[in-house]
Design brief:
The structure holds two protein chains of two kinds.
Chain A: E1 24-32, E2 38-47, E3 52-56, H1 63-71, E4 78-83, E5 86-87, H2 92-97, E6 99-102, H3 114-124, H4 131-140, H5 156-168, E7 174-178, H6 186-201, E8 205-210, H7 213-219, E9 222-227, E10 230-236, H8 237-244, E11 246-253, E12 270-271, E13 277-283, H9 291-300, E14 305-312, H10 315-325
Parallel strand pairs in A: 3-8, 3-9, 6-7, 7-8
Antiparallel strand pairs in A: 1-2, 1-4, 4-5, 9-10, 11-13, 11-14, 12-13
Helix pairs in contact in A: 3-5
Chain B: H1 3-19, H2 21-43, E1 49-50, E2 53-54, H3 55-86, H4 89-93, H5 99-128, H6 136-160, H7 164-180, H8 193-199, H9 203-216, H10 223-247
Antiparallel strand pairs in B: 1-2
Helix pairs in contact in B: 1-5, 2-3, 2-5, 3-5, 3-6, 3-7, 3-9, 5-6, 6-7, 6-9, 6-10, 9-10
């Protein structure tokens, strides 16, 4: 895609202070489905222009409902959503023009051709056909060779690319990716990450939902965790990881240790399998990690060790802890 | 108005017809020819005239209406049901398109396709029997109104249906019988008196009667009544569609 591919869009209000106001602003959004199931409980969230925001949560937490409500597929029970300053109910045309959506569910279209499908998407957004842009986007997503293939001839990964092409053909400022890598192979997942990072470089704001934590860890600037319809945490990814991140020090012993000596009981050590390792957990942000004291105590107890290594807890562990706590 | 979007949906729907050309165009020609062989030839030869018109010519307006109604209905119901079935509807609903624009595009495409079929039947019938059209303006009016009304009706069914059975249920069990009993192949006068009264409860009677009048100047009910009933039916469909928009019924949970 050429550099100006996403910069031509002039649909933000002219006096819109891009750097000061969030590009998406969600206020007290609630959704109770007609069956009585409350999928969203007073969700408020601001998304900044140009950031990659990852929405994490277990299945059924409300991720898709939140995205669908922002995009206009689900009617909120109460609350408001502003996209680029436009209310997504009363000024839905202006609001929706800024948004591209890649849904989680793969539509079961069979006979339609790739190019026809992507052309239709552009038309729906009220834009005249642009064959040059179409070619650029299809080439960029490695779909050009399949441009006239029917959907049924494509692999699952290729179909997902078609959905991305459809979401990009109207040059949105904001791209929603609902579970972009669910059920795709490693190569396509890497590809998807590459696509996201290039879009971010072009200034597109990206909101993705996932339950692959490594995806959020790899791509996101900020992370929101949703569980049972409540947004339980929104944090810069780096800050989140250091704040909640715990570090572990693994000590591989030279000799088997039947039990932890009395002198070391105060450190909260865990004895590993076969008594050949000790695990020490500490707070990486703490004033004192206690490592020096521990190592001295180990020497005094006459324990010899072959190796020492540390491990930082991943976003996945943080996430599991959070959801469990709720 | 997002005309570009309406155009896109309209031509997308029309393109689907091209892929199923045999089914959409060749089959109505074939079935019309069969009707003429069976009703016009075999049975019609024993019925000399109905209301001063040869039986073969008498059934032409009814045949056109029959196809127009069933085709509008099935095209529109399938047209809006299918993207819900495949999941592609998300795209239309998240685009800057109003419900009104969505309806005009889908209903317009469905009505257009049905009218093309109606026109083909009209031309095919011309090979079998001499046809005259006494009131061309009224003929076009009834033609258009019927196509649009039944396409709207089909659109409603397509949104209401959440499985293929429901999609087929109303057209097959209600609309087709009403259309057949609506006087396509006979004049209401030919029924026993009690049944004549029952027949007047069938809205299709008014459509066919009005349409036939525009051909031969003969009708079962008055022109005014025909056009009024047609407009009422259209009004009811428009009202229901408006209600669907307002509530987001089935489309927007």
């Amino acid at each position: 895609m050429s550099q100006d591919c996403f910069t031509k869009i002039g649909t933000l209000p002219e006096d819109f202070p891009v750097h000061m106001t969030p590009i998406i602003s969600i206020r007290d959004l609630e959704k109770t489905y007609s069956g009585g199931f409350q999928a969203l409980k007073s969700v408020s969230l601001d998304i900044n222009a140009g950031e990659v925001f990852a929405l994490l949560g277990p299945n059924g937490a409300g991720k898709t409902t939140l995205i669908s409500t922002i995009c206009g597929l689900v009617q909120p029970s109460s609350g408001q959503v502003f996209i680029g300053g436009h209310d997504n109910q009363t000024s839905y045309r202006q609001a929706r023009r800024l948004v591209g959506l890649v849904p989680q569910e793969m539509p079961t279209v069979q006979f339609e051709g790739v190019r026809d499908l992507v052309r239709l998407s552009r038309g729906l957004f009220g834009l005249a056909p642009d064959e040059k842009l179409l070619e650029e986007i299809l080439k960029d997503l490695s779909l050009w060779d399949k441009r006239d293939a029917a959907m049924k001839e494509l692999s699952g990964g290729m179909k997902r690319r078609v959905l991305v092409a459809k979401a990009l053909i109207h040059q949105p400022k904001i791209l929603f990716l609902d579970e972009p890598t669910a059920g795709v192979d490693v190569e396509l997942r890497r590809d998807m990450w590459r696509i996201v990072s290039r879009l971010r470089d072009k200034g597109v704001t990206i909101i993705l939902t996932t339950h692959y934590i490594e995806e959020a860890e790899e791509m996101a600037d900020r992370v929101g965790v949703i569980n049972n319809g409540e947004l339980i945490l929104v944090e810069e990814k780096a800050a989140l990881m250091s704040k909640l991140g715990r570090k572990e020090l693994m000590i591989e012993l030279s000799d088997t240790l039947p039990e932890i000596p009395e002198s070391l009981k105060g450190y909260g050590l865990e004895l590993g399998a076969e008594g050949r390792s000790l695990r020490y957990t500490y707070d990486a942000q703490g004033e004192r990690t206690g490592i020096t004291g521990l190592l001295n105590a180990l020497a005094e107890a006459g324990l010899r060790f072959d190796d020492i290594h540390t491990k930082q807890s991943s976003l996945e562990e943080i996430f599991v802890d959070l959801v469990r706590a709720n | 108005m997002n005309f570009q979007a309406m155009k896109s949906i309209y031509f997308w729907e029309m393109a689907r017809t091209r892929r199923t050309l045999m089914q959409s165009v060749v089959s109505p020609v074939l079935s019309t020819s069969l009707y003429f062989v069976v009703f016009g030839g075999a049975i019609g030869s024993r019925i000399s005239e109905v209301d001063g018109v040869s039986y073969g010519a008498f059934i032409v307006p009814g045949l056109i209406m029959l196809s127009l109604m069933t085709q509008s209905l099935s095209n529109a119901s399938f047209g809006i049901y299918f993207p819900q079935f495949t999941g592609m509807i998300y795209e239309v609903l998240s685009a800057p398109v109003s419900f009104l624009e969505i309806t005009v595009a889908y209903v317009g495409a469905a009505a257009t396709k049905a009218m093309i079929v109606g026109l083909i039947i009209f031309l095919t019938a011309g090979f079998f029997v001499p046809i005259e059209v006494q009131h061309p303006v009224w003929m076009v009016t009834f033609f258009l109104l019927t196509a649009i009304t039944f396409a709207l009706f089909g659109f409603i069914i397509g949104i209401w249906a959440d499985n293929f059975e429901k999609l087929q249920f109303l057209p097959l069990l209600i609309v087709t019988p009403l259309a057949f009993l609506g006087g396509s192949f006979y004049s209401i006068d030919m029924l026993p008196e009690a049944w004549q009264k029952v027949a007047l409860l069938n809205p299709v009677v008014y459509l066919i009667s009005g349409f036939r009048w525009s051909f031969y100047g003969q009708s079962d009910v008055s022109l005014g009544l025909s056009i009024s009933m047609t407009m009422i039916f259209l009004g009811v469909c428009l009202y229901v569609v408006r209600w669907i928009f307002k509530t987001g019924y089935k489309l927007k949970p």
